[in-house]
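JOB MANIFEST
job_type = single_chain_structure
chain_count = 1
residues = 96
[input]
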Amino acid sequence: MENKFSPGRLVCSIAGRDAGRVYIIIDVLSETMVQVVDGKIRKLSAPKKKNIKHLMAYSQKAGEIEEKKNSGQRITDLEVRNVLQRLMAETLVKRG
């Protein structure tokens, strides 16, 4: 079974000052901690550490971010923003 908190996964913060913000997981630090980015406020140069208890995972996953991360290619903040925007639009369409 695939871990729901893996790189490329779309998540929403449910606790802390950033509650309600949507991020993409960029790295898994441990079983309970991940690093998240949004490409705008939380950039790849300074990802935010979040406890997975404070995150809600969506079913959407940014496959292109995961592939680039696994292959060692460079990921840009612009790519993160574009993917995040696309995934959020897909989420709204599915709900609406």
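[summary]
DSSP finds two helices and five strands in the chain.
The mean pLDDT is 90.
exit_status = 0
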